[in-house]
Each structure stands twice: as C-alpha cells, then as structure tokens.
Amino acid sequence: MKLNVAVFFGGKTVEHEVSVISAHQAMEAMNPEKYHVIPIYISKEQKFYYGEALRDIRNYTDLNALIQKSTQVVLANVDNQVVIKPVRETLFGKKVLDTVDVAIPVMHGTNGEDGTVAGYLEMLGLPYGSPDLYAAAIGQDKVLQKCVLHDSGLPITDWFWVYSNEIDDHREDVLNKVHQLNYPVILKPACTGSSVGISIAHNDEEYLSSFEEARQYDVKIITEKVVRPMREINCSVLGDCFHMQASVLEEVNKDNNEELLSYDRKYLGGSSAKGSKSKAAPSKGIASTARILPAPLSAEKTKEIQNYALQTFKVLGCTGVCRIDFLMDAATETVYVNEINTIPGSLSYYLWEASGMPFSELMDHLVQIALERARRKSRMTYSYDTNLLASYNASGAKGAKGTKK
C-alpha cells in the first residue's frame, strides 16, 4: 500500500521560487510505486493550494493562472488522520480531497524553513522529514546559530551583530566594532538565505550602503570578518541525533574576481559539477552552481570538515537532510563553520548522488526519518493523569496564585 506523502513548498519568502524548484526536484525523485505524492503549494499570500496542475513546474510562470486551476485547502486532523479539505465546499463536491501520512517540507527561508511549518505540522500531529521547530528556528537565525556554535566549541569567524536601528542611533559605536574586525567585512541579514541581502564592504562608505541593503530583509544584521584567501567547502548531513552520516564535500567554484557568490550565480548560472556523474533533475536549481565535486582536499582535511559537519548537525538538534557551509583559509587551511541550511536548496541531492546514494533513496530516508521520529514521540510522556480542574473555583478565576492560605 502506498504512503500518501505531501510535499510542502513556496511560502511568503524571498526564496519562494527556489523552494518551488527544490520541491519539484524532490517530487520527481520519489518512487511512484511507493508513494502517492501530493503537492501542497503555499502562495506568497500564505494560502494553501492542492491540485494536479501544481506538479508541472511550467505552470509557475503564471501564478495567477495556476491558482485558478488549483483548489485552496486546509488541513485538519480528523480521528487521528490528517485530511485535506477544500476551503469552499460545494453541494456535490468532495468534503475530503485527500489524506496525508507523511509531510516533506521543502521550504526555504522565513515563514517556512524557520520553524513555522514544523510547528504547524506538530499541531496537526503529522510526521515530517525535516528539523523540528527548535532546530529550524536556530538554524534560520544566524545570530542564535552562531551563539550555539561558539558555546559548543565549534570554530567560527570573528563577528558581531546589531539591530537595524542601531546604525541610526549609534553609528559611531557600530563603526568602531567594524574597525576592530578590520575591513573587508561581510554583512548578512540574520534570517535570510540564498545570498539574499548579503554583501562585502571594504570601507565605511560601502559598509553603510551595505547595511541599508541588509536591513531591507531583517531587523538583525550580522557583520563578519572576511576570510582571505578563502575557499568555500560544503558538506551535507542526513539523519537524526541517533544516527547521522556525512556526504562527500564540494568546493564552490567562484570566478577569480568574484568575492561573493550571488543569488543569480547560485540559481541561474554555473557549469556542471566536475567529477560528478549525477544526472540533472528537471529543474537544476542550486544543483546548477559551479562546483568541484568532490572537493580537492586531503583525506585528513576532508575527515576534519565532515566531523565538524556532524557536530554542527548534532548540537543544533537537526533532523532530515541539511547542508553545512564552511569557510577555509586557503593559506593556513584553518576551517570555520559558516552556517547551516536546515532545508538546503535541491535538498543537496547532488552531494548524496556523489556519495553513492540516488535521489530516490534520499527521499526514502526522509520518509523513514519522519515515521521513526513519530514512533519515538508516541512513546513519550506529554501530560499527567491529574484532575486539577475538579477543584477549580469558577468564581475566583485567579488560579493557584490567587489562593488564600
């Protein structure tokens, strides 16, 4: 019997289109003999849609037309079964459009990858193959993430963060912090991904301009010391806190005069991976980024980075498939954990194919991870068998704190 697997994607985020591409890659990879795949598209207005037209990525060139072909829906837990129901019921239409056994969120950025969807699925009681609310929130907020990494003894670059209004109220204090790092520095909004709002500054004028750009996307702004000369190395980790494995490494291959890999270069350009025999998905997404795969590193350095990736995955409490990005000083080979992507673009399938795991098998793992976590949670205690309300005084409505002794 097939499992009904709903893939959630889209959302109110600057990474909406990236999510659409990643989700369609994931749906195409799922074995139709094992799974009935259900696309659940979340519009930029945060409405949920269901329908066969959502499976064809070509339809997303006209979102208004696509929505007209689809049905706006809600999900509900009815008798311990999650069902998909139309928002507007008709006299002779179906009251229940489908049922869902497992969810695979393929959400990127705010209002999705940040724990929003994980919390929603928890409330539904629906097993899902991605990090839980806590890991997702910390993974999305780079300020919280860096604090956890630092306190766990993992290597990170010198950095600081401020609220966006501090550049107006305490400009000199902020610039003094920058000068202590020394230019060049990199500025990042705390909660975006895909290089959105990120830039490098070489002097005060560029810093102030970059800060204005970054605060269009978030209220918390991170400033980091740039590593030079720098190599960018990525590793994916699959599993949970009980069992996890690291993929082969990739090196992001930038142009010689390129300091920072832009959103366009990540998703709209780049050559195929050197040394990789993996087959491209229908829409390449981040898999189109120019990269060297596997990364040309010694066995010892490869193992060191993979171990850092596993430690990062574990201390952040991640589940599912993640990608951890590293910066390496090309001269000294000192490695720094840059950030984690708790639901990475293309689900990092290309790293797993290069590790000997087909995309379809990666999706099998995510489904099984979701089901196993649900089984473990079903054995945990979440409430006590008490009758506290039997002695509740309705006339007082002050609770225990209002009790007179």
What does this structure look like?
The chain has 405 residues and is an alpha+beta fold. The protein folds into three domains: 3-130, Rossmann fold; 139-155 and 228-375, 2-Layer Sandwich (D-amino Acid Aminotransferase, Chain A, domain 1), CATH 3.30.470.20; 159-225, 2-Layer Sandwich (Dna Ligase, domain 1), CATH 3.30.1490.20. The protein contains twelve helices and 16 strands. The strands form three sheets. Strands 6-5-4-3-2-1-7 form a seven-stranded mixed β-sheet, sandwiched between helices. Strand 2 and strand 3 form a beta hairpin. The radius of gyration is 23 Å and the shape is globular. Residues 269-282 have low confidence and may be disordered.
Tags for this entry?
single chain, 405 residues, alpha+beta, Rossmann fold, D-amino Acid Aminotransferase, Chain A, domain 1, Dna Ligase, domain 1, 3 domains, seven-stranded mixed β-sheet, 12 helices
Topology:
Blueprint: E1 3-10, H1 16-29, E2 35-42, E3 48-50, H2 63-69, E4 71-78, E5 81-86, E6 98-100, E7 102-105, H3 116-124, H4 133-140, H5 142-151, E8 159-163, H6 166-169, H7 171-181, E9 185-189, E10 199-201, H8 204-214, E11 220-225, E12 230-239, E13 244-252, H9 263-267, E14 291-292, H10 299-315, E15 320-329, E16 335-341, H11 349-354, H12 359-378
Parallel strand pairs: 1-2, 1-7
Antiparallel strand pairs: 2-3, 3-4, 4-5, 5-6, 8-11, 9-10, 9-11, 12-13, 12-15, 13-14, 15-16
Q: Give the number of DSSP strands.
A: 16
Strand content: 15-25%
CATH architecture of the largest domain: 2-Layer Sandwich
Return the domain count.
3
The order of strands across the largest sheet is 6-5-4-3-2-1-7
Low-confidence stretches: 269-282
Q: Over the alpha carbons, how many angstroms does the gyration radius reach?
A: 23 Å
Return the structural class: alpha+beta
First-to-last CA distance: 61 Å
CATH level-1 class of the largest domain: Alpha Beta
User: Portion of residues in helices?
Assistant: 25-40%
